[in-house]
Structures are given as structure tokens and as C-alpha cells.
Amino acid sequence: MTNKLSVLDWIAFILTIVGGVNWGLIGVLNFDLVAMIFGAMSIVSRVIYVLVGLSSLYLIVICPKLAKQ
Fold this sequence. Notes:
By secondary structure, the protein is an all-alpha fold. The protein is built from 3 helices and no strands.
């Protein structure tokens, strides 16, 4: 039996990758892409930051599932 990734799993992966790229840009170039697109600490930016954080926590929880594949 194979465990396929759910839609939620993929969304969490994509959001975590977006967050990782954004943090990389902040660290290397001091450039916050999310803030540039949506405004510094705007409601949309804050929602994106929260979703990225929740996605990373979700991926920590499903790590055992991913390790079994």
C-alpha cells in the first residue's frame, strides 16, 4: 500500500518552500519578498506568515508518515 500525499500535504509543502525562499532572500539580500508584494506587515502579509508557520508545524507532525514512504 502506498501513502499518497494529500492536497493539504502539498499546500503545506508549497507554503513552507515559499517561506524558506523568503527567509533565504532576507538573509542574503535583506529583501522580504512577501512584504514587497503585499506590504510590510499588512493583513495579507501577516496571514501568509501565519500560514507558513502553521504549514511548518503540520509538516513536523506528518514527518513519520513521510518517512514511511
